[in-house]
Amino acid sequence: MGGPSIDMCGVWVWGNSKSWKKNARKMVAMCRHAVDLGRGNVVDISLQNFGTNCLLMDITNSCKGIRRLRLVLPNIMHNGLIRVASKLPLLEDLEISYSAYTTGGLEAIGRCCPLLKSLKLNKRHDIRYDWDGLVLAELHHHYQVFGSKSSSGVIHDDGDALAIAGTMHGLQQLQIFGNKVTNKGLLAILDGCPCLESLDLRRCFNLKVEGDLKRRCFQGIKQLRLPDDSTDDYELVATDEIVYKLYQSFYSTIIY
């Protein structure tokens, strides 16, 4: 990336609520110190299992040239992306995994980050997203909740896809692991993102990639992963399992 980086992924493991909060405070302090040492020149930042809207604001206020931002299971609230999007004009690579965001946040990123080439937007495929502000395990981790129920009770959600298609026309790589996107949303992405070379649709089980749609995907995409493809090489297997266990433990009555 041509500048200092901060990688705070996998530096500690989950414990109980008390230890999580203690560890999170330590990680926030360490991250702020690292940002200070970077003297505004940090271009690559990765945070996992911690991070708040306030920390994200502090980072983007201090570092004006961020090109890669990776957020995995942070405590970022729904308006976090909207508040910092305008401070990321050079952003090329963004990951938001198991984190809160809204379609408005994605649209803000798309409008404010014209150089964006890679987006990873990952979540659990089998957690029910049907109200605003689902809290995991009293640790204040919030999920995006959009979508409408079909007659079968399945949640369909093309909000992410339409936000991507409408604002991120230069994307070359897109991973939407576990998304509720439908064929309509996928078609919008293919139309709105003509530069796509890599598309990962694993565990997007609302999709029916067949016929003309399948042919179009294979014609335009060099590296395509379909909903039922193997997840053996998925880099966030452990995080995915943690999220499910937390949800199962505290919200077992609403899992479907």
What's the end-to-end separation, in Å?
43 Å
Number of strands: 12
Order of helices and strands: EHEHEHEHEEEEEHEHEHEH
Strand content: 15-25%
Rough outline: globular
The DSSP helix count reads 8
What proportion of the residues is helical, as a percent range? 25-40%
Which descriptors apply to this entry?
globular, alpha/beta, 256 residues
Structure description:
- The protein has 256 residues and is α/β, with parallel strands linked by helices.
- The chain contains 8 helices and 12 strands.
- The chain has helices at 17-37, 53-62, 80-84, 103-112, 159-167, 183-192, 211-220, 237-250, and strands spanning 5-8, 44-48, 68-72, 93-97, 118-122, 134-136, 141-143, 148-149, 155-156, 173-175, 198-200, 223-225.
- The strands form 3 sheets. It has an 8-stranded parallel sheet, with helices on one face. A two-stranded antiparallel ribbon has the order 6-7.
- The protein is globular, with a radius of gyration of 18 Å.
